Every structure is written in structure tokens, then in C-alpha cells.
Amino acid sequence: MPTDHASSGQRRAATETAGPEPAGADVFTATVHELTQRAPAIVAAAAAELGAIRLALHFGDGTGGALSAHRSRLIATAHPPASADVEVYFDARAMNLIFDLAARPIDEVLPGSLDVRGPRDQVLAVWRTMRLLSQRASGLRAVQELWRCYRDASPHLWGKPPSPADSVIDGEPTDGWAAPRDTGWRALDFFDHRQPTGDRPLVGGTVASAPRSLWDGTRATGWWLPEPVADADLVDVMTACRDRVRREMNRLIPDRQPKSSLYELIRAYPTRQGKGLRPTLTLAACAAFGGRPDDAVRVAAALELFHNGFLIHDDIADESTHRRGLPTLHTEHGLGLAVNAGDGINLLAVDAVLSNLETLGLARTLGLIHEVLHMCRETVEGQAIELEWIRRATVPRSDQAYYRMSTKKTGWYTCISPCRLGAVCAGESGPALDVFNEAFRWIGIAFQIQDDVLNLIGEEALYGKEPLGDLLEGKRTVMLIHLMRTAGHRDRVRLAELLARPRQGRAQEDAAEILAAMQHYGSIDYAIDLADRLAQRGTQRFERDLRALPENEGKALLRQIANYVTTRPL
Amino acid sequence: MLPNLGPVGPFPDAPLGDHLERRWLHYAFRSPSGDVSVIANLSTLGSSGPATVGQSMSILLVHDREAGWRSSQFNATVTPQAWSSFGASKGPSRMRISGLSPGPSVDLRLRRTGRPCTSQCAPFGFDQHLRWQSEPGIRATGLAAASGDDARPVRLVGYHERVRGRWGWPDLGGWVFGFVNDTPAPSGPPAYSVVFTLITPRDDADAATGSVMLWRSGRLVRHFPRRRIDVAVSGALPRDNVHVFPPLAATLGTAPTAEVPARLVIVAQTGDDRLCIDVDSRTAGRIVNPSELGLAPFSVHEVLGPAVVTGRVGGRQIGFTAGAVVEFAGGAHAD
Known about the structure:
The complex is a heterodimer of chains A (570) and B (335).
Chain A: H1 8-16, H2 24-38, H3 40-50, E1 55-59, E2 64-70, E3 73-77, E4 86-90, H4 92-99, H5 105-108, E5 114-117, H6 120-137, H7 141-153, E6 168-169, E7 172-173, H8 187-193, E8 212-215, H9 234-252, H10 259-268, H11 277-288, H12 297-318, E9 322-323, E10 326-327, H13 329-333, H14 335-354, H15 357-360, H16 362-391, H17 399-425, H18 437-457, H19 460-463, H20 469-473, H21 478-486, H22 489-500, H23 508-520, H24 523-545, H25 553-567
Parallel strand pairs in A: 1-4
Antiparallel strand pairs in A: 1-2, 2-3, 4-5, 6-7, 9-10
Helix pairs in contact in A: 1-2, 1-7, 2-7, 3-6, 3-25, 9-11, 9-12, 10-14, 11-12, 11-17, 11-25, 12-14, 12-16, 12-17, 16-17, 17-18, 18-24, 21-24, 24-25
Chain B: E1 21-30, E2 36-45, E3 55-64, E4 68-71, E5 77-79, E6 93-98, E7 105-111, E8 120-124, E9 128-145, E10 152-166, H1 169-172, E11 174-181, E12 192-200, E13 209-216, E14 219-224, E15 229-234, E16 242-245, H2 247-251, E17 263-270, E18 273-280, E19 283-289, E20 298-313, E21 316-330
Parallel strand pairs in B: 16-19
Antiparallel strand pairs in B: 1-2, 1-10, 2-3, 3-4, 5-6, 6-7, 7-9, 8-9, 9-10, 11-12, 11-21, 12-13, 13-14, 15-17, 17-18, 18-20, 19-20, 20-21
């Protein structure tokens, strides 16, 4: 797993702040980190290419790093390994060839810039890995920014950057307004230097598609020909989708009395937003089926409202004290107001679904209602199963029981239903909607297991819940199920006694004791491994079940999300 | 319907031989403020049948900034006769085009302020070609109505073109065409006008024909040939900003076509002369032309938007911003 958990912002700041020049190895590891966040499908493919090869990297500034793969994850470190299968030596200029598009390779490469040593087949595998990474990274704004910062901080490594202001054409200095390169006037160069800015579009067009040439003096391309399908920067797209749906949610919440005891609570709760997984899935599925992402915004907002309503009630049922880093609603405002606010949010969500009548028509709106009802039924059934386990102080023996509960409780509303609802917005109905079920069922379970693992070993600030909150609540996780299945008799009796206590009867020390037992019996490693396997199964089903869908931006985005689970750092 | 279009030669006043032979007159005008735009196309197709009677089609589009796009069907009436600066009578003349009520209508007095370019020809396919001749800086004053009786006085500047050739839409592929007139003096020609064309046949990627032409004060001063121009596009105009015409096309469930590029950049250079045209698409009217050779229609997107023209020609710096009309046409060979 990546050793460095710093956020991309921190990394960028590290390269931007004055002080010692950033090291090539650091920029490289930061690049891999960005790719993991923003293009998980590419990282998964690159990890598959790299396989068991251990790669050592030596940079021109004297620093070194290592790259290896673990399942679908790429592990980049800024420390050279003791031994490696393939060694790559490249000077700082050669790094430009890999990730930075600010200058053209032909202007940068020097003889001997790049030296790769190792067995032939492994060198080729490394080459394929780096090609995958570099092609995708060159299209990610965040990575380019990272390299721009490095370039600015270490100008002597790169040579003189092209500057419009001092370009010379035919021996004459230009005015600098439209002479992008010394190479002359080209239409594509003009786009490079004068990109329009504006609102980020939703899924259709989320990719800042590269300008394309229709005629360069020798070859023509019809303007009507479709552009090659590209996949998006996952982080940027999720942020855009989340913000767009958030605005729609605000629009749906009425500005009326009683405010302080109802509507303000409802309005404040959605500000505790997550990554935007569900909105992105809904909009991407709509685009994947040929619909307009904007058509799915309202139902995505309704889904978020349902989700918030469920969370408020779920926190009450689980007696949770924190949610998304803040006190839960019932902790802050009391049980009665929280229950009522949860009911109110659910009503607003129903209203939001119905309001699609005017824009999507009767047939699609009925389809949405059908899907939403199904989702709600699955969710309350899953919640009932888990609450019953807790009430009876039982822990299921098999993982299958957990799969069933998890699919019902969170799988439907987190993964499966958002996809189905998006497809309904695009006009799809009937069995065609089932293509999402299996793939996103496994992905959803894997995602939930990873969330449970993060609750135990992740940082509170990142996860947003109280530390060891799941253990305090007695939540039936895969780790707990594995622990009760594998623990010795004496330990099992002790654990059963701890789990039988009510929520208030369990102290932080008790949770720590359960956690220690999990670590002792390898339950956390088991869960991480299981999540990886389930995620792999999900991505395989994705490719198989959605084969009939044309390759478009929506599908590419769904693929990125599917692979997000396999490459997510834990 | 169409007038005598000049001397025998590139544009012979001869009967159209078969159903692929055609000729047309094209008009496109914009008010300097961009409030009103008028686009009209009058075409005649030949006939392979014994009757040898050609088929005439006329369509008028009016874009009003407030009312949006309005279009006639393909049966707009033209009276008393289509004006053309290429015809026998090159002087000012009145021309009325109107759709059937309550369609758009214009009653304009047209006048040339400059000279046309020499004709250009795009050969493609086995024995097909398209020949055209352009003239920017045409002035039009009179009345324009988006619909019904809301006619208002307008002073427009635009472009006129005559076309003759023999082609089938699928083989033609498509084109990118457009013009920009710098804001003119009250009566004279625009200080600068730019016309660009790129015709991209379906099958031959290297057989594209194109040009960029620059007029100064009504005179053609530079012609950049096809090898010296460079065309690129970026982004896509939102589909909500693309309106399908004629109105009948919408009721026939016309299939969607490719997205219209949001931005077009054309760079031309030869010797020390350089010109860059940067057009920002804002709205488009899609004219759905039936194809004689297939089910897929040939779509001509009449795109309106601001353009920035910069460069240096003959030692003079050029730079102006004005409204452009661009055509993105194609799609007849799509499934």
C-alpha cells in the first residue's frame, strides 16, 4: 500500500512552497497517488501489467524510488528498494517524457536520458505499465499541475520553457498574443494557450476533451466524426456531480416555517456531504444509456435526500454519536426533532421524484417511483436484519449472511439503485436495468467492507465517525464475523459477553479489546483480502454484464468507479 | 426561380442534367449588434425523369435574439425574383422571401459593396464536384419578421454565394464554412471581411478542399490555399442550443446528428502573412436536407456566435471582433 497518505493538496503544496527543490522521486510518487485517486481503472490495468515485478527508479537528481503492485493497487515509494527485478535510470529531462506535456518530447530528449535494465519480458511489462500511466496522467489536469510546480521549482532541469511573449517567427519577434510556440502558428497550439474557462459540465463532456484537428494541411477529419471515448478525472467529476446535485437539493427544500425545528435541520444536514459517489453513479448511468446527465440530476437529489433521511434514522437506531465528523442530529437536537426531520426529508424526496413528471414524462417517472420503492424496501429489510442480530446478540457464522444483509442495507441504495435510476432517466426499463445488479452488488459489498476497515484503522478526520464507532455500536462486520468464527473458545466467550452489552455499557476499552482480538486473529487482513477479491469479482462482472453498452463517457466513468474500490488505499 | 447566373463557363446557364446536378444561391446576414440574423437558401435540383423539370426548394431562417430561431418549410416564396450580384443585374434590388403564414419573412433591398472572389471547385468521388463563388460585404436594408406581423426595420451586412455542381450528399461528406464581416462604415464596405471554407469528402482524407480569404475595403487581398490553412475544433455546443428546421423535420422524428463544435479555430499562413479566426458557437439552426441517395439527411448547422480575427497581412496588423455565421454540414452517410 502507498506509504504516503498525504492528500493531493498537501502534495502540491509541498512542491509549491519555497525551500529545497522537490525531488524527482517525490513527484513520481505523488503522480501515482493522483492517478490512484483520479483514474482507478488505469491504475488497476497498470498493476495487472506490472504483476510481481519490483521496479527500482533512479532519478537524475540523485533520488530513487520503487514501484510494485499488490493486487490492483500500485505501491510507489520514495525510497529505492534493496533489490529489484527491473531498474530504470532516467535523468530529469527524461521524466518529462513520461508525464509532463509542457514541452514536446523531441525538444527534451537527450541520448542516454533513459536506461532500463532487466530481463527482456519484464522490461516490456514495465514499459507497458509506464505507457498506461503516462498516457492517462498526461490527460489529468492535477498531474500536469504537479509537474508544472516541479518544473517551476527546478527550471535548470528542464531547459528554457516556451513563452509566447518572446517567440520569434521568421526572425522577427512577435507581439506574443498568438504565437504559441517557436514551431509556428498551428490551430491546436492556439487552443493549448487559449482554453476557455467556464462551468464544468456533467458526465457528458466531463472530460476536457482535447481539441482536435479537422485539417492540418495534409489530412482531414470530418467535424461530425465522434471523438474517441475518454474517461474522466474521477475526483473532478465526482466533485462536479456532487455540487450540481447539492444545488438541486437546496432548491427542493422549501423556505418556510417552521425553520429552526425542521427546515433548517433538513437544510443543514446535506452539507455533511460525502464524496459524491451516488450522484456520480446516477448521472454516469444515465449518460451510459445515452441520456442527458441533466435529466438525472433531480432523481439524484431525491436519492441523496432519501439517504440523509435513512442516515438520521440509522444513527438513532445504532445510537451513533458522530456522522461525517459532526455530532449526529439526535445528539445535537434531541430524538424527537431528529425523527421528525428524517421523516420530513423522506417526504421531500418523494416529492422530488414526483416532480420529474414535467421533465421526464409519466412513463419514466413511474419507473423511478418503482425503483425508489424497491430501494427503500431493500434498505429497511437490511436494517431490520442487522438490528435483529444486535438485539439478539448473535453474530452470523458465514460471510454469505453478511453479504445478504449488506446488499440489502447499503448495497442497493449506495450502488445498485443509483445506476438503475440513472438508466431509467435515460428511458431504459425492464430487464435491461438488471445489468447493474451483480456487478455493483459485489462492488457495494467490497466498498462496505473497506469502509468498515477504515472505521477501525483509518483516521477519524478522514472517515468522519467516532473512533472504533462500529465496535461500540456492535455493528456486525466481516471482521467481527471472522473473529467469532476463528477465535478460540475462551476468547469467543469473552467477546460474546462484550457484544451482549448494550451500547452504553460498552466502553472505549472494550472496543479496543475487540480490535486487539481482531488483529490477533487476522480478521482485518482477512477483510481487506476479501474486499479485494469481491471487488475483482465485481469489476469482472461489470465488463461481462455491461458488454452490450457502447463505450461512451458514461460507461467509462462507471468503470472508473468500479475500479475505485479495487485501488482504494487502505 | 433562380436568375441567370452569369456567363457560360464555371457557372453555365444550362439545364441541370440529372438528379445529382444542382445549383443554389445562399444568403446570410447579421445586424452589427447581432440582434437579427437572416439566412436563406434557394436551390434547384435536376431531374433524371422524362419531364426534366427541376425541383426548387427555398428555406428562410430568421434568428431574433429575443424570439430565437424561426424557419419556413422548404417552400418559402421569393418575389419578384432572387437577387444575385452574380446575375445579369448586379445593381441594388429588392427581394422578398417569406414562409407560409405565420412563418418568418424578410423584405430587403440588397446591394453589393465589394467584389467576389474567383470561383473555386472541390472535386470528389468518381465524377462529382462542387463549385462556389463568394462575396462578403453585401448590405441588406428593409424589414425582417421572425414570425407573423412583427416585422421590424433592419440594417444587415452579410454574404452571398452561388454554387453549382454535381454531387450526392453521402460522397460529399461535409463542410465547415463561414464568414466574418468587420463592422462597416455607414455605407461602404467592411474594413475587413473573412470567408473560410473546408470541404471534407467522405472517403479521401487527403482530398479536402479549403481556403481562407481576406477582403479589405471590398477587395480580395489575400487567398490562403488549402495547404496553408489549419482547422481545429473544441468542445460541443449544448444540444439545447441546436434547433431543428424546417419545422416538418421535428414532426418526422429526425434522428440526431453529431454535436456541433463549441469552438472553431482556423489559422492560415503563407509567407509573412498570418491570419487567425477564433469563433465561439452560441446557437445553431440545423437545416435537415433530405438526401436523394439514402435515408440519412444532410444536416447544415447554421451557427451564430462572436469571432475574433487577428493577424498580419501585407505588413498590416489586423484585429477585430464581429458576429460570425458558420456552417457545420454533414451526416448524410451516417447509419
